[in-house]
Amino acid sequence: MEGILSSTPRLFYSCMDSNDVYSKNFTHSKTQSVAEDGFSLRAVSSYRGNGISHALRLSKKNERLESSDFSKRNSNTRPIDRLKRTVTLNSEVSPHRAVSAVRLLRIDQGGAFVDLLNHNGNHSVDNEMDYVERTLGFHTRALDDRDIRLVTEVVGGAVRWRRYLDHLILSLCRDENTFSDMEPLLLQILRIGFYEILKLEMPPYAVVDENVKLAKVALRPGAGNLVNGILRRLLRLKESNSLPLPKVEGDDRAKARALATIYSHPVWMVRRWTKHLGLEATVKLMKWNNSEPSFSLRANSSRGFTRNDLVERLNLLKVPHDISLHTDEFVRIKTGMQSIIQAGLLKDGLCSVQDESAGMVVSVVNPLPGDTIVDCCAAPGGKTLFMASCLKGQGTVSAIDINKGRLRIVKDTAKIHHVDDIVTTIHADLRDFAERSFLRADKVLLDAPCSGLGVLSKRADLRWNRRWEDLEQLKNLQDELLDAASLLVKPGGVLVYSTCSIDPAENEERVVAFLLRHQEFSVDPVNRYVPPEFVTEGGFFLSNPAKHFLDGSFAARLVRT
Ligand SMILES: C[S@@+](CC[C@H](N)C(=O)[O-])C[C@H]1O[C@@H](n2cnc3c(N)ncnc32)[C@H](O)[C@@H]1O
To answer: What residues does S-adenosyl-L-methionine bind to (predicted)?
Structure first.
């Protein structure tokens, strides 16, 4: 500790401003404790008198390094265990806002994803508090269940609505520089405030007060004043129904830009969808992507746990649910995931979180007792485990994946699901494996890496991480993997190609191109396996989020003649 402190005070104190309440509040003991952790020194807010300057504005070059630093430190050394003794409690700041702001910051810097908070594991409440302490230099009172739900809602929503929120924040700033030079933490606080006012319709003056308080304590009084001014301007515009949003007019490009802002999506996606689906369906799709995601659970029959058993447990837990209309083992829920996690239903392998559309992909494979099956891109194993449970202890599933860590999840979960006697995991690049392997299976599933454009409602951050150019690269990979997977199909056997994309370039077009290269395969229409509303003209399975209110998925069933 000595070493770190003695090597760093110049950096720390040079960032201090004597007029800054934050600095004043930041007592020497706090200084020391934060300085113990190398990252925090860079991460705590600081203010130089020359205007906006902040240690949180990390250089692009350093972002990834520091983000991974976060998790590495957290999982291995846990310096915060030492910090807890000295970091002070700030009971005035609302915990869900402090946690949300820090989490949004980490997501922006590539150090976290948008996902549910748990009571344990990587995304545990304790971990989130550690990040708050290390980033803000104080901790808040503990998160209760309502706070946990709010963090999930606010973080997911602020990420989903980022383009829309930033457009409004920019419009309400005095000038463009105020926005472009804004400290990352301040931007997150504004996003939270805007989202709470515009989308969660929370009591507006409480939202203003709470976010101003957070900005003052976590940054400095000036930041609080800025938040106050901008949020109050927003309230006036909202009350007079005159939010500065673009009009959908002009040429296609201008319309796409306006829609992209109003519905918060990248422009390239809007342009692509309006071309393939038309304007109305594109708007429906974007609305679906922005809605609170619903989840499905699959009762795990390999544990002898039926859908009726699952329904009984959900009733006991008072989790509202609907029976799936499309797949036998599935139940749909909109809320209550925390209760399900806490009740241990997932940990004990009694059920899995799996979308019904993924269940229908397995229906297209039609796994039957005695089958030999290869799951070519298996991790983290959702479809592997469902297929294995369909085999009722007779047959084999070889689960291949290039990602060792994710494949370990398949292996571990297979044990918990009591199907480890029929599931074998193989760590390999499918392209190499298929060339040297003599394995020939009855059924081969290639659930290919894809853009994920069908699951944007569940993956709030994905829309911002995908670029148009990714599709080109993915198409080449999908072709190569299809060629490889086809080698593993025995004569008379079945190859199922699936994605969680709704883009024809990754779906129908890949299958058509494959059939041109492989005349030994032909399409087996899927109408025997899934309900008719999911069958395309070409005989493929397609779930359309805006039409079926499920994730978007595609599957083609190809038979080796
Ligand atoms: C869409 S995910 C599979 C999801 C999985 N089927 C499920 O239902 O849980 C695609 C997987 O392909 C794997 N992958 C990507 N390239 C691969 C390759 N060349 N060989 C084998 N696996 C690969 C990725 O690691 C990733 O786990």
So the answer is: 377-383, 401, 429, 447
Are the C-beta atoms of residues 331 and 296 closer than 8 Å to each other? yes
Helix (H, G, I), strand (E, B) or coil at 494: strand
Beta-carbon contacts of 397 under 8 Å, excluding residues fewer than 6 positions away, are 367, 373, 374, 375, 384, 387, 388, 391, 419, 422, 423, 424
pLDDT digits (tens, 9 = 90+) for 159-200: 999 999 999 999 999 888 999 999 999 999 999 999 999 999
Ligand 1 pocket member 446 (CB < 6 A): no
pLDDT of the residue at 15? 26
Any idea what DSSP says for residue 147? Answer: H
**pLDDT single digits (tens) 493-534:** 999 999 999 999 999 999 999 999 999 999 999 999 999 999
Residue 69 has pLDDT above 90, yes or no: no
Q: Could you write out the DSSP letters of every residue in 326-381?
A: S-TTEEEESS-HHHHHHTTTTTTTSEEE--HHHHHHHHHH---TT-EEEETT-TT-
In angstroms, how far is CA 166 from the centroid of its own chain? 20
Task: Annotate 308-332 with three-state secondary structure.
Answer: HHHHHHHHHCCCCEEECCCCCCEEE
Nearest CA to ligand 1 atom 17: 402
| Whether 327 contacts 359, CB under 8 Å | yes
Predicted complex ipTM: 0.99
Sole residue written with tokens 């449970």: 389
- The dihedral through the CA atoms of 344, 345, 347, 348 has a sign that is positive
Q: Is 111 labelled a binding residue?
A: no
Task: Among 402, 404, 479, name the best residue to mutate to test ligand 1's pocket (greatest count of ligand atoms within 8 A of Cβ).
Answer: 402
- The residue assigned the tokens 């239903």 is 345
Is 406 near ligand 1, meaning CB less than 6 Å away?
yes
SS (H, E, C) 265-285: CCHHHHHHHHHHHCHHHHHHH
Residue 39 pLDDT greater than 50, yes or no: no
Residue 59, exposed/middle/buried by CB under 10 A (0-12, 13-18, 19+)? exposed
For helices 204-218 and 184-198, the axis angle rounded to 10 degrees is 170
Average pLDDT, the chain: 84
Tell me: the pLDDT tens digits for 358-412?
A: 999 999 999 999 999 999 999 999 999 999 999 999 999 999 999 999 999 999 9
Phi, psi of 506 (to 5 degrees): -95, -10
Q: Which residue has the tokens 């997932």?
A: 346
Q: What is the pLDDT of residue 60?
A: 32
Atom 13 (ligand 1) nearest CA: 377
Q: Tell me the average pLDDT across 483-498.
A: 98
- Which residue, judged by its Cα, is nearest atom 27 of ligand 1? 379
The answer to whether the predicted template modeling score (pTM) of the entire model surpasses 0.90 is no
Alpha carbons 469 and 62: distance in angstroms, whole number = 25
* pLDDT over threshold 90, residue 21: no
